Amino acid sequence: MKKPWWALAGALVLAGSAAILAPAVASAAEPCQLSDDGDSCLERLPLAEGAALPIYRSYPLDEATDVTKAIIVVHGTGRNADEYYDSVAQTADAKTEVIAPWFQADEDDPADGDAYWTNGDETSWKDGGNALFPEGLSSFTATNELLKVLGDKQRFPNLTKITIVGHSAGGQFVQRYAAGGEVPEGTPVRYVTANPSSYLYFSPERPESTDDCDEYNDYKYGLDNMNEYMSGLGAEEIVKRYTSHDVTYLLGEEDVNQDHSIDDSCSAKTQGEHRLARGQFYAKMIKDTYPDAPHTEVLVPGVGHDHGQMFNSEQGKAAIFD
Fold first, then answer.
1. Which residue range forms the structural domain that includes residue 77?
2. Distance CA 301, CA 75 (A)
């Protein structure tokens, strides 16, 4: 039998007008380390209709007044949020709040009350799809709620910047979220997308042939037939948001193999042969089409499809920690 998420979460702590479910064991003095007690790093962010989004974080969200920087790290298709949290938290300093949201899929046996999606199709967490529970909740909306908390100056009075980073499927998420997410007023947000299998294009042109691939420009690859969340914004607003945001394309120089669940659909193949080529083609397209966009391509030498090596490389740490 599943345990209810409120039994797992610990004490109920009131912060302003919102209720934050914090674990019973937490320290505001030192950032949480999974090696100490993984459960003590887990908190649940309240969402719509009584649901919650599990997150791993350095400090409880109502006890981080000294934090000056926040890093949101998004897991890959394996949904191993704890490992992604650990890979960034080990490098972060004591003034940095590291947060790894856990976008569970239906097969993860989520606790009662936890939001969950699928790992593919129109209800996928990877591209802002609607949750199976609570029904109709976009994973982008859930992330917007997290950013609202970080932008709350009552909770984070000293926070000056937010970085959102993802690798592989998490890189896909971050790249699309940069085009559709809500930015908290007064707090700059940077986006680092590492080794995704595909990108969101803003026109029908592609670097490779589109013959025999009728749906190549459908969302999440293009702006046709967008999901509910992105349709609500419209193409013009999506392009405006994306090209105005600070985006880094962090690409492993050795990520040139057909492995690690690479997207091998015809829609993805129109963007290039492998992840490195797809990233380089896309970065060049942005530079050529939107020369004023504050976007940067960064190559990580000698690294393939490995989030730990990407994040802890010299180039990765520079991109993530600015």
1. 5-321
2. 22
